[in-house]
């Protein structure tokens, strides 16, 4: 039997925050943008949007009204500043809560055996050490600026009139700010999210190696691990942010004649597959444990059902006259039904912690920001009808 006091102590002592640590977090804490007991979301969103957009608008306005209105109407920039960056900041709260809930559920549902509590706490502490490591976030920053340098050299921003000085064919001050500040903030947030997700994957991998107390008859049809199917939903704001930025670029390219809408079918499909691989497929680490639990459960409960059925037949069929007085009020029929129901749960048990609602959430998060792309050539109602049909 598990000791509730030991388990509760583990819950109280367990440091399971994915977000509240690391260099980026400590900088925000020193700048009083965030506090240990509050997210200060409004303040952080205001600062991020202000830094990413206000100087950009001012620098563009200094060159004249055309550049200023060019920035205001450029949905590629606005998608990053007013949609993607806020969503990526908001996503941190969901990631934090989902990770805490996952860690707590493993203990509260007694999935972790009493003798493995120390091992479980060790996994959580390893996650914290990774979270606080400096080199991963440094690599993220290096990667961001390498990508920005590539963008600068390739001249990708030169297709925006407000970002390019036509007389010198170089970036304007607004173009430089957009590239090395606005875009840098967006990409850094993406990099940090992916690093936190990698830590999450490593934690799940280590948990999957433990001798978990799974029950193939559990009503969630995933041996008690059904809650894991909710984990990818913590990253829905991230998918919305990425899709909004990609969609804004595709819309610009479609309207400018650089590409045709039909050529985006394959990239859109690949984006969906990639999102599933990154945010859903890692849950496959639990498949071996679930497969073993289902196989063993099928054998055990099949034997139990058969043995009970034999006793039931002997008592109520072969020896029925001897037990007629017991027939009314007997619980034998209910017990047989319960065993059969448990066996059915084993038969229907899934070996991958996944639900249709997760797939729907991922597809919707990717598809909704793409509606403005499709409406460049297809009426809005046709787009909505197509999305509706795809989900049914």
What does this protein look like?
By secondary structure, this protein is an all-alpha fold. The protein has two domains: 1-213, no CATH class; 214-392, no CATH class. It is 68% helix and 1% strand. It has helices at 4-13, 23-30, 41-62, 65-73, 75-108, 117-132, 134-154, 173-208, 236-255, 265-279, 287-318, 332-348, 356-367, 371-374, 380-390; strands spanning 164-165, 170-171. It has a two-stranded antiparallel sheet. The radius of gyration is 28 Å and the shape is elongated.
Throw out a few tags for this protein:
about 400 residues; mainly alpha; 2 domains; about 0% strand
Major sheet description:
2 strands, antiparallel
Cα gyration radius (Å): 28 Å
Mean pLDDT: 84
Q: Low-confidence stretches at least 5 residues in length (pLDDT < 50)?
A: none
Structural class, judged by helices and strands? mainly alpha
Question: How many domains, in number, for the residues?
Answer: 2
Count of extended strands: 2
What topology, given as strand order, has the largest sheet? 1-2
Helix content: 55-70%
- What's the tally of helices? 15
Shape: elongated
Percent of residues in β-strands: under 5%
Q: SSE string, helix = H, strand = E?
A: HHHHHHHEEHHHHHHHH
Termini separation: 46 Å
Give a brief rundown of this model.
This protein has 392 residues and is mostly helical.
Mind sketching the topology for me?
Layout: H1 4-13, H2 23-30, H3 41-62, H4 65-73, H5 75-108, H6 117-132, H7 134-154, E1 164-165, E2 170-171, H8 173-208, H9 236-255, H10 265-279, H11 287-318, H12 332-348, H13 356-367, H14 371-374, H15 380-390
Antiparallel strand pairs: 1-2
Helix pairs in contact: 3-4, 3-5, 3-8, 5-8, 5-9, 6-8, 7-8, 9-13, 10-13, 11-12
């Amino acid at each position: 039997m598990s000791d509730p006091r030991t388990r509760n102590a583990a819950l109280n002592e367990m440091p399971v925050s994915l977000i509240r640590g690391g260099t980026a977090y400590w900088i925000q804490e020193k700048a009083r943008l965030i506090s240990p007991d509050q997210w200060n979301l409004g303040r952080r969103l205001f600062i991020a949007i202000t830094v990413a957009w206000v100087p950009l608008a001012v620098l563009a306005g200094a060159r004249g009204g055309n550049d200023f209105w060019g920035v205001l109407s450029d949905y590629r920039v606005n998608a990053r500043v007013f949609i993607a960056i806020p969503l990526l900041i908001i996503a941190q709260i969901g990631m934090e809560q989902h990770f805490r809930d996952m860690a707590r559920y493993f203990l509260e549902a007694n999935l972790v055996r009493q003798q493995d509590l120390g091992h479980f706490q060790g996994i959580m502490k390893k996650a914290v050490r990774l979270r606080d490591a400096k080199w991963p976030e440094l690599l993220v920053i290096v990667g961001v600026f390498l990508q920005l340098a590539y963008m600068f050299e390739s001249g990708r921003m030169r297709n925006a009139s407000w970002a390019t000085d036509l007389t010198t064919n170089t970036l304007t001050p607004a173009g430089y700010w957009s590239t090395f500040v606005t875009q840098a903030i967006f990409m850094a947030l993406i990099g940090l999210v992916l690093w936190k997700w990698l830590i999450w994957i490593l934690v799940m991998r280590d948990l999957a190696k433990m001798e978990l107390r799974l029950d193939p008859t559990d009503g969630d049809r995933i041996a008690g691990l059904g809650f894991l199917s909710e984990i990818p939903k913590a990253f829905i704001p991230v998918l919305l942010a990425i899709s909004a930025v990609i969609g804004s670029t595709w819309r610009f390219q479609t309207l400018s004649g650089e590409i045709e809408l039909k050529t985006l079918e394959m990239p859109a499909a690949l984006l969906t597959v990639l999102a599933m691989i990154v945010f859903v497929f890692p849950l496959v680490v639990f498949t071996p444990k679930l497969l073993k639990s289902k196989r063993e459960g099928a054998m055990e409960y099949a034997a139990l059902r058969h043995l009970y059925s034999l006793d039931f037949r002997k008592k109520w069929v072969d020896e029925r006259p001897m037990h007629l007085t017991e027939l009314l009020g007997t619980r034998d029929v209910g017990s047989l039904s319960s065993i059969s129901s448990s066996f059915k749960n084993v038969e229907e048990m899934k070996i991958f912690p996944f639900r249709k609602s997760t797939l729907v959430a991922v597809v919707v998060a990717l598809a909704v920001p793409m509606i403005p792309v499709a409406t460049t050539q297809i009426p809005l109602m046709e787009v909505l009808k197509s999305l509706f049909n795809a989900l049914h």
